[in-house]
Amino acid sequence: MEKGGVKAWIDGDETAHDMLRRISAVRSSLLVPPLHRVPLRLGNVVEIVGPSPSAKTLILIQVAINFVLPREWNGVRYGGFDHSVLFLDLDCRFDISRFSQMLTHRIMEGNAVGDCDKTLYDLCMQRFLYARCSNSFEFLQTLKTLHCRLKREKDHGVSVHLLLIDSIGAFHWVDRASVFLSPKENNRKKLFLQSVSEAVVQDIKKLLQEYPMLVIATKSIIFGNTYSMASNEVNRCSRNVTRSPQQIQYREYMPSVWQSFVTHRILLRSSDDQPATSNYGNFSFYELEWLLPRIGLPDKIVVKDTGVFVDSRTMFAEGANCG
Amino acid sequence: MAPLKCMEKDYPLIDSHFQSFCASHAIFSFEDFLLYDLHALIASADNHSSSNTLKQGIDQLLSVIDAKLPSLRNGLQLLQDAECNKLLLPTGFQGIDALLGGGLRAGQLTELVGLSSSGKTQACLTSASTVAKQGGSVIYFDTGNSFSPQRIADLVGQTSDYVVDNQAELGPLQRVMERIMCYSVFDIYQMFDMLQQLKINLKSKIVESDHHVQLLIIDSISSLITPILGGRGPQGHALMISAGYLLKKLADDHNIAVMVTNHMVAGEGGTSKPALGESWKSVPHIRLLLSREYDSNVCNISTLKHPSVASGRAAKYTMYL
Questions:
Q1: What are the CA-CA distances from residue B106 to residues A96, B73, B84, B285 (Å)?
Q2: Residue pairs spanning A and B at CB distance below 8 A
Q3: Which superkingdom heads the taxonomic lineage of this protein's source (chain A) (predicted)?
Q4: Which of A99, A304, B211, B249 has a 20 to 30 Å separation from A65 between CA atoms?
Q5: Which residues of chain A make contact with B285, given a CB cutoff of 8 A?
Q6: Which ipTM did the prediction report?
Q7: pLDDT tens for residues A214-226?
Q8: Coil, helix or strand for A117?
Q9: How far apart are CA A141 and CA A30, in angstroms?
């Protein structure tokens, strides 16, 4: 090796500072409320785990609204990211009127006059793309054809930067029970569940290479366990049940190929001290905890008509409760 | 599981050469193709001598998939569909209508949970009679012989339009009763059969078009599913989830409101919890809890899950017998 070559090799290509600057320019990090504790960037895969009901879909809707709103419109600063969103509904339960309601509230509160700007509303609604799947094969079909569909949307000037999957574990039981016979001379017997998950992860990875997106998926806890989860639901109004402050342990049921694909994980659970909901109006309280990266302090989030917000006033009161 | 061989007739690009290329990757059917890594396949086709024709075959398969799937819809189209087709269906049952802001929504699966004799069957019968009075058809799957035509006649006769004691007035009552089709279903496979038959009938529009099916009631779905849950295999849960998807697809495609009832089982600490377990919780759109105060006609109804209403929102109503 020449002398200049060795020296150049030792000096390196770029300093860490230069590299950070280069990456931040290409993929800037976003703070997406109510998940703003941890900065996210396009290419991250976030998993939101929680029992049912726990506002998981509402968080997805909130994030979607933040993405479709423009940064500024008619002099009003909305602070959105100005991109399109794709929602894959695997649970087949999405309610568009809830999305519309939250979007209208958001537009109205930003507007000085207090009315809803119809052009802005239409623009945002058009940026929200939706597809629904009722089994794993439909899901795979949708992922495989997403390349050319996104390309078509891109040609119309619409770029999708957020992929929302409602309930990645929706077909878990059906796939586990599927006996997929294939005339393969394969010694290694692969479970159908495993094959499907690998195919899904591969397809999403390839999709992310060409269309960098932030992926957020919800996952319901389907193996019921602790005392707190079951009794909380029915005894909401009669609070003679004292809940011991222990964490909900949930069993991971997704195959390891998906688990290692996930870069961030959040756990949602219903809150300890629920006020009497009948008097409090249409509010619900939940606890949001970051498992990956691990932040010991859970946030309290409140679900109102207008959206999902982090309840800042009770944040410090919960300081003693960290695990 | 469509083998690739069968597609050769309609799509000439999927010829025997392409099929043998796929067979070398252990792809024999359409589903195998879906599970295989697409880019690896394309890369392997590149290395082949006749890469162009192979890639054309792959593109052909992809366009077949693309043609079968519905196109991506945007928010405005969804909202328009919801406003035109997915209408609210008043049930006539005070508690439900009060809590849901008008009634059941077409296209959604609503679940009523409650202990025994908390009013679930009454709610079903009241909803059936109200919808039938308004002119829609009702399909009622009765799993426990609890359907009562006399009760329906009473409920219908409670309004002034249908006075039953006069022989001449039986006509309108009879018409209302004819719109409620009641089937006795005693196991889940029978329910699947009937739902598939319903799907076929609705698709081919055999049913008369002036009485659209607006409401499907299954009282109670838990008695069909509970016998097959349990055991260590996943088959029971898989059937339950598939039933859920079938009902939701029927509801969405044909603008039907589906109402199912569920019973309660013992939970931890002496409390009761809804039956069918954790996996069932993510199936219905809306879950309502009914309870009756001891020895009285006053009932409580509260939301367990609703997309817009907070859980625990409650309403009281008095049940008339």
A1: 13, 19, 11, 11
A2: 189
A3: Eukaryota
A4: B249
A5: 93, 95
A6: 0.89
A7: 999 999 987 765 4
A8: coil
A9: 30
